[in-house]
Amino acid sequence: MRETEAMETKSPSTLTIRRNPYRKARATPLTVSSRLPSHSTSSSKLPQISSFPIHDILSEEIPPNPPPTVAAASPSRSQDMISENLKVYLRIRPLVPLKSSTKIVGDQNPRSRPKNVWPQVSSKKNSVKEKKISKKKSNESCIMVSDDFHSVTLSPPLPLQETKRIKSEVYEGFSHVFSTESTQTEVYEKMVNPLVEDFLRGKSGMLAALGPTGSGKTHTVFGSPREPGMVPLALQRIFKPDQEWRFYLSIFEICTERGKSERISDLTSDGPDLSMQQSAIKGLQEVIVNDVAEAELLIARALLKRSTAMTNSNSQSSRSQCIINIRRGTNRSDAETDEQSNSAILSIVDLAGAEREKRTGNQGVRLAESNFINNTSMVFGLCLRSLLEHQKNPKKALQKHFQNSLLTRYLRDYLEGKKRMTLILTVKSGEEDYLDTSYLLRQASPYMKIKFTTIEAQPNLLCNKRQFQTLSRTEQPKRMKLGNPDASMIEGKIVGDENQLPNEGNLTHCSADLKNSRPQNMNSDDLMKRERTHQITQSFAKALWSVLKQHNEKLKVAESENQILRENLRNEKKRSSEMQKELKNLRSCCTCSKGNSVASIVVKVAENFESMLHLGGQTSCGIDETKLDFDSSYHIKSECSSSPRILDSTPGEDQTNVKVYSPDCKCSPEKGKHFPRQQQDICSQVISHNTSSNLSGLECFDDKQEPEAMDGFDFLDGQVRGSEEVASSQSICFSNDNCQSCQILESFAGAGNIQDNSSESNYAVTEHLDPNSDVPGFAVSNLGNDSGTSKLPGQQLGENDEDSLDPVVSTKDVEHSQQQDAVDVPESEIRPDTSCNSLKKEKPKRRLLPASSILVREISTFDADELDKPRGNGGVKNLDAPERQRTQGSISLLRLLKSNLHSLV
Ligand SMILES: Nc1ncnc2c1ncn2[C@@H]1O[C@H](COP(=O)(O)OP(=O)(O)OP(=O)(O)O)[C@@H](O)[C@H]1O
Predict the structure, then answer these.
(1) Disulfide-capable partner of 684 in 573, 659, 751, 847 (CB 3.0 to 4.6 Å)?
(2) Is 259 annotated as a binding residue?
(3) Whether residue 69 sits in one domain with residue 88
(4) Rounded to an integer, what distance in angstroms lies between the CA atom of residue 468 and that of residue 487?
(5) Residue 492 CB–ligand 1 contact under 6 Å
């Protein structure tokens, strides 16, 4: 055994597996994205996702085969190598068979003529024929064995060298070359005994003899009484006196039925032909054998049934493929029941030798048999060649040549590299056999590059299943170089059956254990499973990479959206802080700072206004708090209880029962007296607060329903339209119905951060009727900023309205509005007319009619005589069409101006 391994170590045969060319992986999307300029600062703060190691996966390297020195270093483990080359032996038959190895030829009936199997009876006839044949053959040998018995040199005969210029060929890499002088015992010890020992340890194996007809296959397998072959020698080893195992023996042959079909015959019984189901032979009889004698007798009887025939090449040529199986059963002390699936089987196959039609001269049935034999040999060789090519290039599929013959179907596992197999090539050394020998060596010598994995698993596993699964990836033909620790963790997580992941140290430790335990752990099935697992994992990795790429794209989109939301949030926070600041100022200014609702604030403001009016000498200018009613939408209902003109508001009309009083009255005895700064701020903040509380739309309107009530009203200007609640805008009207004309010239100026530069700006909080909801709302019109903050009827909101939609009126807006007013209407003309505005609500549109515009229009058509005209039906219905264009507010304003003029006079 050690000698054999030492020779294997010296074997020059090495396998060179080409590595796939280095492929450059494409840049990952993450890498590309990292190159893109970051449009947001927040994106740079996002955690970077490590790129998937697809580049490493694609650049996997195929590790070289483990050097044979590893096996030599541990002889006891050499037989357990997970992957070993197919052992191919070569035996050269002597030119002149020794006398001891002569065959016994019976009658010419191939079925009844026994093959050279023991016990045999010598036949003088056969011996004479052999001698005659040997005399005809050349005594020259065409094959020469090297000194190391691992290679041979095949030299063509001189005629072939001269005519076809064929040169000598060297075939090397054989496990051992048995020369013509080798004995059966030597062959057994070097070739078969390892198989038998493994078989006794529970490992299956198969020995197959290949070679041209008459080359000594049958002689090697079965031998003769004087020179017992491998089978009897193996039986002698198997049935040693201390053998405790139970063995079963079966023999069958596969031959052709007149060259048309194949049939399987059980040589241990006289039953009908057998059938094959997949790779199993149905109905094959197993005979339990207890000793060598029983086994030899059984085999001898079986060989008597084997199909043989005399040909020109061999007087006793095998016409069938003969397979003998020795199965190791359970221990003799165990129960009778036995499970074949767990048993080790030693198979020895004696193939029929390929024949050359010219040499054999077969005709008829013999020719059909020859075709069957040659076909089977060809299929057998194709299977091995396909296996070899598949192992060289895994991408090349393993061809299913085994389906083309019963023999290869039966030996499928061996021919696909799943079980260990040993080949013995037999050749004849004569020059006349050069072509047969050359053909066989050319065909079969590459088989020695075929690899087989370890046969059986041992119970003493060094790694548990989980460790093995985790580490098996590192031992795969294509190793995944996962340099990224995270990837290693993912790898372990996928393979591991628990959440507990092995760290790097454990992986290294287990890897070492795996190398040691690999011979016991691995077999061909495991290798196939690992290969499949590798392919599945690789496909999974690619699919995962695709999914990650898609998610990365989505992540980038979400990131941009997130950035926009953050910007909006930042703006909202800014606005919120400003509003809170204003609210704080408002509360600080409000006498009753505890009120949180708009209603309370308005009430307080109204109270302040009323008190101011009282302080200003007004008789009655206040708010009936009891009539203030805020609905859920900040609907304010208020009536001026003190003003006879206001009180005539129709109670049933909700649109007109909202009356909040203006704090300033220009026409009061203390005309021109301005509100204290505090009150102005309060009003301004009320507006602002209303705006922030969805009291966004503050509009002026014409109230045609109450021309009288509107008479003498001065609408506070200062429209602030909220950007979000335009439709639900509400209005509040501060009015002073005691005043014929209530005017606020400088009210609500400043208010801190609202009107710092617009101390002259006037705010009018007016009643607003929502035509859609019929709910009064707040409307505050800035008379000084009409053009900037209010809209004429029918005027649509444009892009510039964005500024007006801002609840916080900026200084810029005020200035801009003032500039526009200065252009449209001279301030000198407007200011006297802003003392009193009476705007009628205009349905259905909720558009503001800027007071300034109204004043300008009215003043341009002002006729003092109109004021003296009788006003029937509210002074509106009798107006002509052009005059109807004048709103009641303008009429009231004109009257106010008139009265002022009278008072001044
Ligand atoms: N190594 C050997 N030493 C002596 N005689 C041998 C040797 N090998 C074969 N012979 C003799 O050569 C003859 C043919 O051998 P054998 O029948 O085994 O060939 P084979 O390969 O089985 O042929 P076939 O394929 O036609 O059955 C036999 O008579 C056998 O005794």
Answers:
(1) 751
(2) no
(3) no
(4) 18
(5) no
Q: Which atom of ligand 1 is nearest to the CA of 219?
A: 18
Largest CA distance in the chain: 170
Q: Are 444 and 423 in contact (CB under 8 A)?
A: yes
> Which atom of ligand 1 is the closest one to the Cα of 115?
17
Beta strand spans in 185-337 (E): 205-210, 245-257, 261-266, 275-277, 280-282, 287-289, 308-309, 317-318, 321-331
Whether 24 has a binding-site annotation, put simply, is no
Of the listed ranges 315-319, 752-756, 862-866, the least confidently predicted one is 752-756
For 606-629, the pLDDT digits (tens) are 555 555 545 444 433 334 443 444
Q: Where are the alpha helices (DSSP H) in 421-523?
A: 434-444, 465-472, 485-495, 504-521
Helix (H, G, I), strand (E, B) or coil at 231: helix
103 CB within 6 A, ligand 1: yes
How many domains are there within the chain?
3
Give the Å distance between the CA of 217 and the centre of ligand 1: 6
* Residue 718 CB–ligand 1 contact under 6 Å: no
How close is the Cα of 430 to the center of ligand 1, in Å? 14
Asked if 620 and 762 sit in the same domain, the reply is yes
Both 108 and 196 in one domain: the answer is yes
Count of other CB atoms within 10 angstroms of residue 652:
8
Distance from the alpha carbon of residue 288 to the mean position of ligand 1, in angstroms:
30
Query: Based on the domain organization, do 183 and 322 belong to the same domain?
Result: yes
* pLDDT tens profile 674-720: 444 444 444 444 444 444 444 333 333 344 444 433 343 343 343 43
Going from the Cα of 102 to the center of ligand 1, the distance in angstroms, rounded, reads 8
Which residue's CA is the closest to the ligand 1 atom numbered 2?
93
Which tens digits make up the pLDDT trace of 127-136? Answer: 445 445 444 5
CA angle 721-725-730, nearest 5°?
70
Tokens encoding 506: 């454990």
Could you give the count of Cα atoms lying within 13 Å of 795 in the half-sphere of its Cβ?
A: 16
Residue of minimum CA distance from atom 5 in ligand 1? 97
Task: Give me the domain span that covers residue 526.
Answer: 1-32+49-75+465-553
223 known member of a binding site:
no
Instruction: Judge whether residue 346 has pLDDT over 90.
Output: yes
Strands, E assignment, 540-607: none
* 585 in a structural domain: no
38 is written with which tokens?
């970051």
The pLDDT score that the predictor gives to residue 422 is 93
> Residue 94: CB within 6 Å of ligand 1?
yes
Q: Is the pLDDT of residue 806 over 50?
A: no
What is the full DSSP assignment across 170-224? Answer: EEE--SEEE-TT--HHHHIIIIIHHHHHHHHTT--EEEEEE-BTTSSHHHHHTB-
The answer to whether position 459 is within a domain reads no
Same domain, yes or no: 549 and 649: no
Would you say 206 and 194 are in contact if contact means Cβ atoms under 8 Å apart? no
514 within some domain: yes
Co-location of 498 and 623 in the same domain: no
DSSP state of 714: -
Answer for the pair 876, 888: CB distance below 8 angstroms, yes or no. yes
Residues 4 and 122 in one domain: no
Is the C-beta atom of 319 inside 6 A of ligand 1?
no
Any residues with CB less than 8 A from the CB of 895 and at least 6 apart, and which? 711, 712, 740, 741, 836, 867
Residue identified by tokens 């909801």 is: 773
| Residue 280 exposed, middle or buried by CB count within 10 Å (0-12, 13-18, 19+) | exposed
Q: Establish whether 31 is an annotated binding residue.
A: no
Q: Is residue 644 domain-resident?
A: yes
Tell me how far apart the alpha carbons of residues 698 and 691 are, in angstroms, rounded to a whole number: 8
Query: Looking at the structure, do residues 345 and 239 belong to the same domain, yes or no?
Result: yes
pLDDT tens digit sequence for 456-494: 444 333 333 333 333 333 333 333 333 343 333 333 333
Is 215 annotated among the ligand-binding residues? yes
Burial class (CB in 10 A: 0-12, 13-18, 19+), 679: buried
Sign of the C-alpha dihedral, residues 378, 402, 325, 278?
negative
Q: Residue 163 annotated as binding?
A: no
Using the 3D structure, point to which of 397, 427, 452 is the last residue of a domain. Answer: 452
